[in-house]
């Protein structure tokens, strides 16, 4: 009798979230951005929304740095807030903080991330969704955005991880950490559900961005 190996947690997480991952990447706003159909101000608006999201994530991690579950996933090598602030300085001028406001979907997303201070597994779900996405498709998006808007360095530094020499190696180690953590089966399912929720929240931010820029209903 042949025994079929059960997929690892990281494999199941990836497979279960793939459809929503593609939906987020294929959002109308992102398609327009990649095609150069959004003005520089619209790109800057997206960057400001990213700042609110990553500020929530990197602030929440301060409460979990010593947690036995979440702590091993946390590293300053991933931090995006300093890069986002530098990008906004370049795109909008140094007084951008007086004007930046989170859109409703961004406010909802950031609030959900902050709730994860009480649930380490949920924090890992959001940490995984954001940063491993950044180290995968995000790197390719960054190259396109740099070309479309004629930027090099300031303005697109969010997409560059100068402290991670080999993204694939880092991602493999991250997934191994997911697989080696002693999650109970029910907890694994909760984490997968929260990853799916993170993708939905992210897609709602893109929809809000499209509405804010008068792009009409997302397709």
UniProtKB/TrEMBL annotation:
Keywords for the protein's UniProt record, in alphabetical order: Heme, Iron, Metal-binding
Presence of keyword Iron: yes
InterPro entries in the cross-refs: Haem_Oase, Haem_Oase-like, Haem_Oase-like_multi-hlx
GO molecular function terms noted in the UniProt entry: heme binding; heme oxygenase (decyclizing) activity; metal ion binding
Gene3D superfamilies in the record: Heme oxygenase-like
Biological process terms in GO annotation: heme catabolic process; heme oxidation; response to oxidative stress
SUPFAM superfamilies: Heme oxygenase-like
Chain residues that bind heme b: 14, 21, 128, 175
Name recorded for this polypeptide: Biliverdin-producing heme oxygenase
């Amino acid at each position: 009798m042949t025994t079929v190996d059960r997929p690892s947690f990281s494999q199941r997480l990836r497979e279960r979230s793939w459809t929503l991952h593609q939906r987020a990447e294929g959002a109308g706003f992102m398609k327009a951005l990649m095609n150069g159909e959004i003005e520089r101000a619209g790109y800057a608006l997206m960057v400001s929304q990213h700042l609110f999201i990553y500020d929530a994530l990197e602030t929440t991690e301060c409460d979990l740095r010593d947690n036995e579950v979440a702590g091993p996933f946390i590293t300053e090598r991933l931090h995006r807030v300093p890069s986002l602030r530098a990008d906004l300085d370049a795109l909008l001028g140094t007084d951008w903080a007086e004007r930046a406001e989170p859109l409703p979907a961004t406010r909802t997303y950031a609030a959900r991330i902050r709730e994860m201070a009480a649930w380490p597994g949920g924090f890992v779900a959001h940490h995984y969704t954001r940063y491993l996405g950044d180290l995968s498709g995000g790197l390719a998006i960054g190259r396109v955005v740099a070309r479309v808007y004629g930027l090099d360095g300031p303005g697109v530094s969010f997409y560059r991880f100068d402290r991670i020499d080999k993204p694939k190696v880092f991602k493999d180690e991250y997934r191994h950490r997911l697989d080696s953590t002693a999650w109970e089966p029910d907890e694994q399912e909760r984490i997968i559900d929260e990853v799916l929720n993170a993708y939905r929240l992210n897609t709602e931010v893109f929809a809000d961005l499209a509405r804010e820029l008068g792009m009409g209903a997302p397709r």
